[in-house]
Amino acid sequence: MSVSDSPEKNQGLPAIDARAAAHVARKISRSGEPWLHDEVARRMSARLPLIRHTTRHWVNWAPRVGGRAAQSLIPPLFANARQTVLQPEPLDLQWAMKTLAPRWWQRFFTTKVDYSTDIFQEADLVWCNMQLHMAPAPLALMQSWSRALNQQGHVMFSCLGPDSMRELRGVFAEQDWPPAHQAFTDMHDWGDMLLQAGFAQPIMDMEHITLTYASAEDLLRELRTLGRNLHPQRFTGLRGRTWHERLLRGLQAKLSSPAHQGRLAVTFEVIYGHAFKAPAASKRDTPTMVSLEDMKKMLSSGGKTL
After folding, report:
1. Residues 251, 171 contacting (CB under 8 angstroms)
2. What is the Cα–Cα distance from 269 to 215, expressed in whole angstroms?
3. Which of 264, 86, 31, 56 is CA-nearest to residue 170?
4. Beta bridge partners of 96
5. CB 49 within 8 A of CB 119
6. Whole-angstrom Cα distance, residue 55 to residue 27?
7. 65 CB-side CA count, 13 A
8. Nearest alpha carbon to residue 61 among 166, 153, 131
9. Contact predicate 30/161, CB 8 Å
10. pTM attached to this predicted model
11. Cα 58 to Cα 77, 122, 131, 139, distances in angstroms
12. 63 and 38 Cβ atoms separated by less than 8 Å
C-alpha cells in the first residue's frame, strides 16, 4: 500500500495520508452508527439558537462521515428551512439518498430535502460535523464552505483536537509500535485557517469527553465507527493474531480506570468552530487607461498631471 501525504503539509499542519482519507467515508458508514459523532452533533445543535441569524437554507455537509443526527436535530430549529444534503462524490450521494430519505409517511411533516454533489452560493448555514480532522486538504474544504454560503452566511463545524485518544497513543508508544492515529490540529490553528479561507471573527471552543467501555473489544469496535488511522507513518501491512492479542492486553491493562469502576476510559477533545463569511472586499476604482500617444502629447504640451 502506498502512502501519500496531505498536500497542505507545508502549512505547518499535521500530515495525513490523502489517499486513505479519500476512502474513509465508506469505511466508516459500513462499521456502524458513530455514537460520538451523533452526540457531538447534539451538543453543537444546542448552540445554534444562540446565533441570531435567519436560516432559510442550510447545507448538511457530507453526512456519510458526519453522521445522521443533523437530519433530526436541525429541522425543528429552522421551521420551513430548505435543506441540501451535499456529498461531493456520486457514490456517497447515492448512499445519502437511500439512507437519509424520509419514509413515505414522514414526507407530510418535513420540508423538501435536496441532494447534490455541487456547491451553490446561496446557503445561510453550512453544517459540517466531525470531518475537518480527516480532510486531506482542510484549507480547500473551508474555502468550499465559503463558496456554498451567501454573503451573510455562516459555518458551524466540529472536529477532534490534539488530546483525543491520548491513552491509546500511550499504549502504542510503550510497545514501540507505529502511530495509532494521525496527529490532530489545535483549535487556534483552525481559527487562523478560517481567516485564510474567507471567514471573519471565528469563534473557537473545545471540551473533553471521556468515553468508557466494558472491554477492549468494545473500544476497538467503537473506534472503527469514528474513523481510520490516516497517519503517513502508520503500519500498512496486515497484523497477525499475536499482535491483536497484545493490543487487547495492553488496552485492558493501561486504560482500566478506577474512577470508572474498572471500565476502559478514553479521552476525546472535541473542537467546535463558528464563523461568518467575511464581507466582500470593496471594489477598487476603475483604473484610468491612457494610450502611449496621449501620454506623449500631454508631456510635450507641458502639461497636465495625471
Report:
1. yes
2. 22
3. 264
4. none
5. no
6. 32
7. 25
8. 131
9. no
10. 0.84
11. 11, 9, 17, 21
12. no
CA 223 to CA 216: how far, in whole Å? 11
The superfamily (CATH) of domain 9-300 is Vaccinia Virus protein VP39 (3.40.50.150)
Task: Please give the single-letter amino acid code of residue 301.
Answer: S
Strand 149-160 with 264-277, pairing: antiparallel
Amino acid found at 25: A
What does the block give as the cell for 36? 460520538
Output the tens digit of pLDDT for each of the chain's 306 residues.
Answer: 334 444 444 467 888 888 888 888 788 888 888 899 999 999 999 999 998 889 999 999 999 999 999 988 999 999 889 999 999 889 889 989 998 877 655 555 566 789 999 988 899 999 999 999 999 999 999 999 999 999 999 999 999 999 999 999 999 999 999 999 999 999 999 999 999 999 998 999 999 999 999 999 999 999 999 988 888 888 877 788 899 999 999 999 999 999 999 999 999 999 999 999 999 764 444 444 445 565 455 445 554 333
Place of cell 454573503: 151
Where would I find the beta strands (DSSP E) of 214-296?
264-277
What is Dmax (Cα atoms) for the chain?
95
Contact 208, 162 (CB under 8 A): no
Provide the residue count of the chain: 306
255 within 8 A of 210, measured Cβ to Cβ: no
The closest of 226, 178, 51 to 125, measured between CA atoms, is: 51
Q: How far apart are CA 218 and CA 288, in angstroms?
A: 70
